[in-house]
Amino acid sequence: MIFITVGSQKFQFNRLLKAVDEFIGKGEITDDVFAQIGYSDYKPVNFRYKDFMNHDEFAAEMSKADIIITHGGTGAIIGAVKKNKKVIAVPRLAKYGEHVDDHQTEIIEQFKELNLICECMDSGKIGVALEIVKMTTYRAYESNSQTIIDSIVKFIEK
Asked: Residue 49: which CATH number?
C-alpha cells in the first residue's frame, strides 16, 4: 500500500495529487493508494483520500503502508523513516504556490545523500520513483537525540 501525506500547512499540493491520480488512471500505478490531502483543492478520483486526519488515523495509515509519498518537510520524512518505511519525497515549490520558497529541495537532497529516501524532484516522474524505491534498500534511520542529550548533561554537570 502507498500512503501519501502532504502535511497540514496551509498550502495546496495539487501537482503531486494530480500526478499520482493520472498514473493510476493510466494503469501505471496499481498499488492501493490512500492520501491525506490537507489544504489541496484537487480531489483525487482514482484513489481514496481524506483532507485531514487525527494522530491515531494518521498512525494507522502510516503503519499499513509499505511506501510513503510525501512533501519535503523534515517532520514527514523523519516520521516515515523512523518507522522503516520506504519514502519518496517530492518538494513543494514556490512557483506553483505550494510554499513560500524552495527550501524543500535542499532538505530532500540531504536525506537522499544519507541514503534514507528516494527523491522525486519532478512529480511527473513519480512512476519512475516508485520503481526505484521498490528495488532499493535504504539505510536505517539513526537518531542523534541521545548524543545531544548526553552533551547537554555533560555541560550541566561541569
From this structure: 3.40.50.2000
- Burial 38-74, CB ≥16 within 10 A → b, else e: bebeeebeebebeeebeeeebeebbeebebbbbbbbe
How many Å from the N-terminal Cα to the C-terminal Cα in the chain? Answer: 51
Which grid coordinates belong to 123? 512529480
Q: What is the pTM of this model?
A: 0.89
Domain total of the chain: 1
What are the grid coordinates assigned to 146, written together? 541521545
Domain span including residue 121:
2-157
CA distances from 124 to 20, 79, 83 (A): 8, 25, 27
pLDDT digits (tens, 9 = 90+) for 102-133: 999 999 999 999 999 999 999 999 999 999 99
